[in-house]
Specification:
176 residues, mainly beta, five-stranded mixed sheet, four-stranded mixed sheet, 1 helix, DUF5990, Monooxygenase
Length: 176
């Protein structure tokens, strides 16, 4: 199965200090590999217009009509698996130093969506990567902060929409 993570609304390259935690410059985000905290896939600058990561996983039916997702970028035990989106700074030499993480929780994927993803081989997560305070999104991420579906994002006349536009066919770039 492929998991596609579509992140928008990135918080910028500077994370201001808030009195309880320090500020950071040259902020980036990426997907952390399991058991390798220093291995981050697809590092994206914090001021990018969007981020898209695709993770190859194995998905199998699990007890109680659930789906278990495993892979090199999947963390946690069965029933509590997740993907880490790691926030960090990038220095002049290109080294990434993590300062916080967000957990995209698979237990929050609606069961019908999980079963459809198992059948189709594709699961999509859509989320804003900035929290309500304007900081990088962190902690456990579940709906409504993330939307899970089996549908890729479709753009109609340059505007992203979820699923299909009723009465319209998806058209290629430049089509009326």
């Amino acid at each position: 199965m492929l998991i596609h993570i579509h992140g928008t609304g990135l918080p910028g390259r500077v994370r201001a200090g808030d009195g309880t935690s320090p500020g950071y410059g040259n902020v980036h985000v990426g997907v952390q590999r399991r058991d390798r905290t220093r291995e981050i896939m697809g590092i994206v600058p914090g001021d990018a217009p969007a981020a898209l990561w695709t993770i190859e996983c194995q998905a199998v039916e699990a007890p109680m009509d659930a789906v278990d997702i495993r892979g090199p970028y999947v963390h946690g035990r069965p029933g509590a698996r997740f993907v880490y989106l790691s926030w960090g700074t990038v220095d002049d030499a290109g080294a990434f130093t993590m300062f916080q993480r967000a957990k995209l929780m698979f237990d929050a994927v609606p069961p019908a969506v999980a079963r459809a993803a198992l059948a189709s081989g594709s699961l999509h997560a859509r989320l804003c990567l900035t929290d309500a305070k304007g900081l990088p999104l962190c902690a456990a991420v579940r709906p409504p902060l993330v939307t899970w579906s089996t549908e890729p994002e479709i753009r109609f006349r340059g505007v992203p929409v979820s699923g299909r536009v009723p009465g319209r066919r998806a058209r290629g770039p430049g089509a009326p």
